[in-house]
Write a sequence for this structure.
């Protein structure tokens, strides 16, 4: 359960090497989170992520998890909840893909969609059911501003995030009135290892800024969080740009 400061005592990060996931874990540990589960493919990077969090004073366990293997999700994630209550689940895994390559490689494009959408639907439903069974908790889903409208530059990635965004909104509606809270987070361009070498876009943010927004959103029990907040108005305007004109914009 959350402590007197409103911080979760336990956190499950799906995407255990995610820069945003780790930044969020560092913030919650500073606010008295004592148990962190990092779920991801076994790797030196996952082990290093766990070791870095242990130096902050938390107990950290790694969980073997593959978004592209939905058949294993119920067993692997169910074991986490069987070991004790989880106050917050952060669904932070995802891949950007390579738009230029993926357009001519349907298998690679399907891998982006399978990771970002199909894998997230499976993991999200497993965790939502477990949160309901324990009677409390929050599920935080990392979407993207790219989910708001298709862009020539990243429509494969954007379409996968759009599907995830709608799924998470619907799941939140399905759980409304229960003690389980679903929050959708829509960051803009995030400066991180995953975006190195890519042209920076307006309203760029950092993993730490996204983590701060997640923490505030959980405290307020928000349903949707934009990072930075100005993107809410920007995307509302862009959404209504006529399509012939939109095609000509440098997006």
């Amino acid at each position: 359960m959350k402590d007197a400061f409103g911080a979760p005592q336990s956190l499950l990060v799906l995407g255990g090497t995610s820069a945003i996931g780790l930044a969020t874990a560092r913030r919650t540990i500073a606010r008295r989170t004592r148990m962190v589960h990092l779920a991801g493919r076994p790797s030196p990077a996952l082990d290093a992520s766990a070791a870095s969090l242990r130096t902050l004073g938390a107990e950290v366990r790694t969980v073997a998890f593959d978004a592209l293997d939905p058949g294993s999700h119920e067993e692997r994630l169910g074991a986490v909840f069987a070991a004790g209550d989880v106050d917050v689940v952060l669904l932070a895994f995802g891949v950007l893909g390579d738009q230029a390559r993926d357009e001519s490689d349907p298998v690679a494009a399907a891998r982006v969609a399978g990771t970002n959408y199909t894998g997230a639907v499976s993991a999200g439903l497993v965790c939502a059911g477990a949160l309901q069974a324990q009677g409390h908790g929050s599920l935080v889903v990392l979407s993207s501003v790219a989910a708001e409208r298709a862009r020539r530059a990243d429509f494969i990635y954007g379409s996968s995030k759009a599907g995830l965004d709608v799924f998470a909104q619907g799941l939140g509606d399905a759980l409304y009135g229960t003690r389980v809270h679903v929050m959708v987070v829509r960051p803009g361009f995030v400066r991180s290892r995953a975006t190195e070498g890519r042209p920076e876009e307006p309203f760029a943010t950092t993993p730490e800024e996204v983590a701060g927004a997640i923490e505030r959103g959980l405290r307020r029990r928000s349903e949707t969080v934009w990072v930075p907040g100005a993107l809410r108005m920007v995307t509302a305007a862009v959404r209504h740009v006529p399509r012939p004109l939109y095609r000509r914009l440098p997006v």
